Amino acid sequence: MVIADHKVVSLHYTLKNNDGEILDASAADDPLSYIHGTGSIIPGLEKQLAGKSAGNEFNVSVGPADAYGERSETLVQQIPRSAFKDVDEIEEGMQFQARSASGETLITVTGVEGDQVTVDGNHPLAGETLNFDVKVESVRDATAEELEHGHVHSDGND
Ligand code: ZN
User: Fold this and answer.
1) Could you give the dihedral angle defined by the CA atoms of residues 48, 51, 53 and 57, in that order, rounded to the nearest 10 degrees?
2) For residue 95, how far is its CA from the centre of ligand 1 (angstroms)?
3) What is the pLDDT of residue 97?
4) Rounded-to-integer distance, Cα 20 and Cα 30, Å
5) CB atoms within 10 A of CB 3
6) What is the whole-number distance in angstroms between the Cα of residue 142 and the centre of ligand 1?
7) How many A from CA of 35 to the centre of ligand 1?
8) Where are the domains of the chain?
9) Which residue of 32, 86, 113, 122 has the smallest Cβ count within 10 Å?
10) C-alpha–C-alpha distance, residues 80 and 84, integer Å
């Protein structure tokens, strides 16, 4: 069975940046499963998976435009420390969920100077070229219920 829209795909992957650092990987006993054609994984990877089948292994390099987008410097802002009322200590590297016009976004504290906190609303992988090593484990038809819910059902997860 080849990968096409509305197939449930399970795969193992290792994700590296252009310096060869491993950014993410599937756990050995827990492949990533998703419904193809629903936009649930990054577009550049989904595109390359179409037409592959179980057992296929390949490498794909995905530029920012087909991954998490280019960095936007307008998403880097300085805000007063007093905006973080509920947080005792603000430190570089802290991450917060914030509500914005486009939904929930993750913001990262990238600097603290006196009463000014610099936050970055870019996705942590924005601007990065993502290099995936992929192995397709299995491909099957999605059930009607999975398509209705928009996610994969497995191991009692429904
Ligand atoms: Zn469900």
Assistant:
1) -30
2) 29
3) 86
4) 23
5) 21
6) 11
7) 12
8) 7-68+126-149, 73-120
9) 86
10) 8
- Distance from the CA of 130 to the center of ligand 1, in angstroms? 29
Q: What pTM value is reported for the model? A: 0.79
Q: 7-68+126-149 — its CATH code?
A: 3.10.50.40
- Ligand 1 centroid to Cα of residue 144, in Å, is 10
Q: Measured in angstroms, how far is the CA atom of residue 6 from the centroid of ligand 1?
A: 15
Name residue 116's amino acid: Q
> What amino acid is encoded at 22 in this protein?
I
pLDDT in tens, 133-158: 999 999 999 999 999 999 999 876 78
Q: Which fold, 73-120?
A: Thrombin, subunit H (2.40.10)
Amino acid of residue 79: I
